[in-house]
Amino acid sequence: MSIAIDEIRKMKEKVLDYSGYGLNYNPFPAAGVSPDTANIDQIRAFLDKYFYEKIRAKEITQLVRDLVRSSYIEGSARHMWLWGDWRVGKSTILMKLFLALRDELQDCITVYVPKPRYGLVKSIFYYFTREYDPEFFFELARKILVKVISENPNLIQDDWVEVWKESQESLKEKTIQECKLKLVEEIKKDTVDVFSLISEGAIDSEKLYDVCVAKLSPEYVTEDVIKIFTDPKDPETLYRNILELSEKRNYSDHLVALFKVCIISGYYKHIFVFIDDVEDVIRLWARGKAEKETDELNNFLDRMHSNLSLLGTMHPEYFGIWKERYERFVGRASADPLNFTLVEVRPIESDADIMEMVSYFISKACKTTPPYPTYPFKEEVIKDLHKRLGGKLGLILPSLYSLLMKGAEIGTETGKYPEIDMEFYEKMKRGVFEEISS
What we know:
CATH architecture of the largest domain: 3-Layer(aba) Sandwich
Number of domains: 3
CATH topology of the largest domain: Rossmann fold
CATH class of the largest domain: Alpha Beta
Distance between the termini: 30 Å
Number of strands: 5
Oligomer: single chain
Structural class: alpha/beta
Order of helices and strands: HHHEHEHHHHHHHHHEHHEHEHHHH
């Protein structure tokens, strides 16, 4: 048997038992980084388990007030950079805001981009079309068609109305125009299906397309998007056609078009886009590509105007480079700024806040009432971690995870669970800091 297989079998049998500490499980995250996912259920599960919202109440309150007041109530764009050092918690704040707005503002579109891996604008397109399903886009087509037909009732064929009115006792003596207006009322109430009217020939599809082009093209809606929405067929086909737009050279135009349709439909008031790790544009890409992507984002935001707000996270080191190269994206420094607001996310400064947070996580995993709120961690251990790691939650929490795991390993093997005091901490400290820095 190989060494690797032997170790795997040993580890499968070696299940750590945290019950000696009165815990059901280890309540701290093993890694100090947020999950690289846009799956809403996974984001929600991560935040529910590992985010103590109270410790970031000041930042969250400021961001929510600014966003909701400026974008949702006043209808203007509100762009923001959350900037701060590695592991201070920028990403968790961004995810929390994303979920809060998505849950509470059902009449807005919210898109979360965990990393701009496909490019800035293309990543927004990619995650928008993955976070909203085929039925959403099919219903969006329905909403925009209802709006266009309601505003242009003459799109409905006279000969079809003649036949239809004979089946409606109350309309038999009405004029064709009166019947069209009644039909529009029924379409708005969804008692008559707009897609069925198109498929039955009640509406001339060519005229419908021409009217949509005339009405929507001035609002940056592309003819490709109009064609997809005026000939929807079924949700899956429509969705596939939209995904194909993301592979076209002018994908940015099509993304603007899709977002504009959301606004024009009258069902959505604003678009919120959240992009984590925006500094990857500078950190990982060649300068030529970074400039191309940033120019594209610049153009995209200009066309979305007041309909979209962008929130992104940025590391200070790369923010300085970004500021130097792309001044439109920073504050009001240029003659033609995009007016980004800077919100700094600092390390946690207060020992009391860290103690409260540790107590909170312990309480969530407790089977019984602990001897003291942070048990098995002694206060001096938590304070030393706080000081040594500079108040960075992305380093402190995995350190607590490792210390608790090592204590549980001893307890599982010996039956005696050590309190995590300074003596235990000093013995284990080197291994813990090696783990979190790797």
